Amino acid sequence: MASHSKVKRRIIIDVISHKDQRYETVGDWKFDKKGNLHIWVSDIKNDDFNNLVAIHEFTEALLCKKRGIDERKITDFDMKYEALRKEGDNSEPGDSLEAPYQNEHLFATGIEKLLCSALNVKWFDYDKAVNDL
Asked: What is the DSSP letter of 109?
């Protein structure tokens, strides 16, 4: 068995109160200076739902890093998108044609939907719970 003292990088997933997110989102991620990936998931009060958000964020972060898409540009885009959001608009910033990570976000959503099916979670129920936060 490998020694944990030789761990070079970590993936840390924290389920937090929605109000503690950096901006209006249910999932957020950031790489720190050591290369550790931090993922924050708003607590939806359902383990499957929380895990689905975490997998989406992990997939998106992995692809963005691989493709050299700067996390700061993504966060700046998301914050601006949320600031300009109109009442009743439930779209996701990553769905926008202007999102610097649209392809990566859409791929992560595809993985999320596949996992929903494997977990026997109805996408409509999950999506509603996310939007109701």
From this structure: H
